[in-house]
Amino acid sequence: MSHAHVLARLRGTSTCFSRGQPVQNLILLQSGRVKHTQVSPNGDEVLLRMSAEGDAVNVQGQSGSCNHTHSARATENCEALVWEYGRLQSLVAKYPQLRQNLSRILASRIQELDERLCELVTENVARRLALVLLRLASKIGKQAKGGIQVSLSREELAQMTGATVFTISRIISRWSEQGFIKPLREAVLICDRKRLEAASNDKARLVHSSKGLTRVTEPKDESCEVCPLIWHEQSKSLTAVC
Prior knowledge:
Layout: E1 6-10, E2 15-17, E3 25-31, E4 34-39, E5 45-51, E6 71-74, E7 78-84, H1 85-94, H2 96-122, H3 125-140, E8 142-144, E9 147-150, H4 154-161, H5 165-178, E10 181-184, E11 187-190, H6 193-201, E12 204-209, E13 212-217, E14 229-232, E15 237-240
Antiparallel strand pairs: 1-7, 2-6, 3-7, 4-5, 4-6, 8-9, 9-11, 10-11, 12-13, 14-15
Helix pairs in contact: 1-2, 3-4, 3-6, 4-5
């Protein structure tokens, strides 16, 4: 296949493709990062996912009559191998393993979307954020002094988590106080991955009550899940102070 590709260099913020454009090429990143976005009905840009070295940026089940369902642009200087889809179809017919590889990539994307949808429905925001940060650390994280840096803004993390910027900021501030996350400008530094993994697996927290420490499952309401809880002795109940 090596003779059929073109080496492309993309500068930071260069557009790879836009939503609605016909699918013309298969792009395989060799270096750099690419952001995949959609625009909501009210005009807001929403971050869907990130691509990094070794990722196929735009795998489609079929080409020709297919249009891109979202937009993609480089966030830093990138190098990519590009195959024209018409030529790629002849290669797929010649090399059956290539078709299997493309199908495997599509299946992996669907599985990730299924997992994220399930998390959105069943998990609280703090746990969703921990899971998103762990995925991003593996995908686009870079070694930095003191940990792994994930270069996304609070707004982008909120979009990927399905929460408000306010809630994401409060959770990051709380984790910063606990010492395993450090907020940076337009980025987050993961100082202790093991503790972040623990946060992704822990659906409960410890609070002080008249009976000492009590383990309480966090509320589903994102407006309350990072707020302190108060024990009411008379009613034997806990309420969040928002």
